[in-house]
Amino acid sequence: MAYFRSFNTPPPDPAVLKELTRKQNEMQQRIILQRPDFDLKLIAGCDSSFIGEDKILSVFVLLRYPELEVVEKVWHHGPVELPYIPGFLAFREAPNLLKAYEKLQQKPDLVMVDGHGISHPRRLGIATHLGLHLNKPTMGVAKKVLVGKYTEPATAKGALSPLVYKDEVIANVLRTKDNVKPVFVSPGHLMDLESATEIAMTCAIKHKLPEPTRLADHYAAVFKQEVK
DNA sequence: GCGACAG
DNA sequence: ATCTTGTCGC
What we know:
This protein has 228 residues and is α+β, with helices and mostly antiparallel strands. Helix content is 31%, strand content 26%. It has helices spanning 2-5, 14-28, 89-102, 126-134, 193-203, 211-227; strands at 42-51, 55-64, 70-79, 110-114, 138-142, 160-165, 168-174, 183-189.
C-alpha cells in the first residue's frame, strides 16, 4: 500500500495494529444488524477532508427526509494522529467526526457515512464504528471495495449485485446513476442491508453519491477553504 | 509467497 | 485523502 511505498509516511507499528485489531474484534461483538424501527425524518451525511497531513476537517450535514432539504451543517477540525491504513480508517477519522457530530443542534435518525459499514475484514468499517459510538443507526456508502467479491451490476440506475465475503452478503454494489461506477452500500449498526440499500437509492437523485454524503463531501471542500 | 487494500 | 488542465457530455 501507499504507506510502505512512500518515503514520508511512517510504516504502521505492528504492536499498534495488533491492539487496534483487538479493539475491533471486541467491538464486533456489539454490532446489531436489524431493520430499524424509526420513521426516518432526519438523515445526516458525514465526510472528512484533510489539510496537509496532520489536520482533519469533518462535516455533518442534516437533511429532511425524504425531501432531502438541508436543515443544518456543522464542521470541526483538529489534529490527526494515525496515518491512513486500510482497515483502520475509523481510528484516524472517527474522533474528529464525533466532535463535529456534537455540534449538531438536532440529532438525525440515521447517519450515512462516506466509507464502509460491515463490508470490512472484521465488520468494523467507519460507519459501523461510528454507529457503536453514537448508539445510533448508521450505514455506509463507499466508492471503492475493501473486501469481498462481486459481479458488475447492470449499467442502468437501480441495478445491484451482492458483495460477498466469507460466504456472506455484506453489502450491495449499487448503480445509483446510469453508466456510472456503482457504490458499495452496507449497514453500519442498528441497520440492515435491505433498508440501507433502499435509503441509498432514494437519496440518489441526480448524482452518483446519495445526497447526504455528496453534500457532506461538498461542504467539506467549502469549509476547508474558509479554514485555510 | 503473491496480490489487495475504504479515505 | 491529496497533488492537478483540459475536456467530454448532460
